[in-house]
Amino acid sequence: MSIDDLSTAATSGSDTTVDAAPVDAPPVRRTRPRRTAGSLALQFLPPLILGAAIVGAWYYVSYGLLTPERRFLLRPPHEILQVGFLDWDHFSEILLALWSSTRVALIGLGISICIGFFLATIMSQTKIVERAVFPYMVMLQAIPILAIVPLIGFWWGYGTTSRIAVCVIISLFPIIVNTLFGLQSAERGMHDLFTLHHASRLTRLRKLMFPAAQPAIFAGLRISAGLSVIGAIVGDYFFGQGAVGIGQLLKRYSSRLEGEELLAAVIMSSALGVVVFLFFGWLQGVAIGKWHDSSGPND
Amino acid sequence: MTATDTTRTDSLAFNGIGMTFPDGTEAIREASFSVARGEFVTIVGPSGCGKSTLLKIASGLLEPTAGTVTVDRERLGYVFQDATLLPWRNVLGNVELLAELHGIDKTERRRLALEAIDMVGLTSFQGHYPRSLSGGMKMRASLARTLTLKPPVFLFDEPFGAVDEITREHLNDETQRLFQTEGFAGLFITHSIAEAVFMSTRVLVMSARPGRIVAEFDVPFDYPRHPELRFDPEFAALCGEVSKELRGSHQ
Asked: How far apart are CA A294 and CA B8, in angstroms?
């Protein structure tokens, strides 16, 4: 075994052997506990039971509490399924709108990532810039999106550009804050090491600060990705020109009292958020899972 | 500051070093001593006496408020208290880092790294990431990283303070073996007297803050030093003397 190799190597330098205790053994590898049928049941049973209970309560409200003429307020689950998901006309409408909103969210997130990385990198290099920019970032974060909707429409019109702007405003802050925090997270000793060996600013950024920032960057990305989906839907709700997104669809369904489609659209929006969150969790696992502990979608 | 030859061909010389921090703490007062090639000097002293500060001054990480240091900083080996391995690089990648920073080309730095990893006995762990290494193995990797530079002067800042006693003894065995084969000038900081006496040609005792060199002991044992030396009465007697001096300086 490799441990034995090591202790032999450790003592081979001195002519006499020391006590044969396996010194310097690596720590026991943390392995995931084996998944038995029991642990699987323990993992999936509680949410399944709760889900069943929620569906049960839903039926009770639809049929037990609401009179037939008020049943439109909460249609029973199977009707949602039939009208919202199994009727291809309705479902394709929802999917199309979802795709339009996804595109807006991705473009918005992309812009946020570019601006966020750029600003955080500059802020990490110059304390003065950090001091100057940070208060405004906090202010930007504190703006209720509703309050600036008129302004955004005023500046960029009522189409895709404004929807993307909403996305960026909502998702920018976590990227900046997490990237900056990450860039500043390299230990003092490591910085000393780079200083001792005359590393340039760029080398330090590339080989020390940026790799050290990755876990925090991914944490920020996961938050911002979720927010950008919300931003796309909110933006679409207010700025409805051009392709119909999920926000417009929600508005349309609610004005027509189409409860089944409305709920189906809500469920699909939430599914989009989950997919985006899982995707970035997966990406994180691939990128830094080898060396960083708290990665992977299940942390 | 670059090397200017002194009479004894010192690799590293402190001349009247004083260090007072901006907050008024006087860390070091009038420290003068030198380390020649083929010497392994250890400074023992109580915690917080400014031992590590001396190394920071030697390496240029800190500027002293008095006195001068004479040393060639281009190829200075510095082993930190913590292993300071980059967690996103495996052992091989970490050991290659310094050669990389010094612009040595890829094949050469790979060769240097593999050689150094072999020297510290980590060959079968070269693909491991730091998180799966024990404290002692991290320290070995850190040593290997510094060895790739083949530094003529080696500074050790209490590197084995965080590992258990047995591992520490093994690391001590290996360090004195490396000292013998590589022939560097070593300056080692520790608060373990046994460690100091076991590895060194000379032991300096530093007083509590402000740190001054208050005593000096020559260690007469021949190299290579075997682990059994630790059970030798002469070894124990010398440790006792150092301990007594350290105790005295502490009061």
From this structure: 54
For residue B228, list chain A residues with Cβ-Cβ distance below 8 A. Answer: 16
Residue numbers in B near A29 (CB within 8 A)? 132
Q: Which residue bears the tokens 């230990």?
A: A187
What are B145's two structure tokens? 């990283």
Q: Residue A154's Cα: distance from chain center in Å?
A: 30
Fold of A77-288: MetI-like fold (1.10.3720)
Q: Please tell me the CATH code under which domain B41-75+152-251 is placed.
A: 3.40.50.300
A-B contacts at Cβ under 8 angstroms: 107
State residue B2 phi and psi, 5-degree precision. Answer: -120, 175
Please give the ipTM for the structure prediction.
0.88
Rounded to two decimals, the pTM is 0.81
- Secondary structure (3-state) at B216: strand
Nearest to A190 among B86, B174, B227 (CB): B86
Tens place of pLDDT for every residue, chain A, 299 residues?
344 444 433 333 333 333 334 445 555 555 555 567 778 888 889 999 999 999 999 999 999 888 888 888 888 999 989 988 898 998 999 999 999 999 999 999 999 999 999 999 999 999 899 999 889 888 888 888 888 888 999 999 999 999 999 999 999 999 999 999 999 999 999 999 999 999 999 999 999 999 999 999 999 999 999 999 999 999 999 998 888 899 999 999 999 888 888 999 999 999 998 899 899 989 999 999 888 876 444 43
Name residue B183's amino acid. G
- Between CA A273 and CA A295 the distance in angstroms is 19
Token pair listed for B65: 């408020």
Is A196's CB within 8 Å of B100's CB?
no
* Domain chopping of chain B, boundaries: 41-75+152-251, 86-150
DSSP A87: S
Coil vs helix vs strand at B68: strand
Inspect the interface and report whether the beta carbons of B98 and A197 lie closer than 8 Å.
yes
- Range 147-206 of A in CB contact (< 8 A) with B: 187, 189-190, 192-199, 203
Cα distance between residue A4 and residue A23, in whole Å: 9
Q: Cβ B98–A24 below 8 Å, yes or no?
A: no
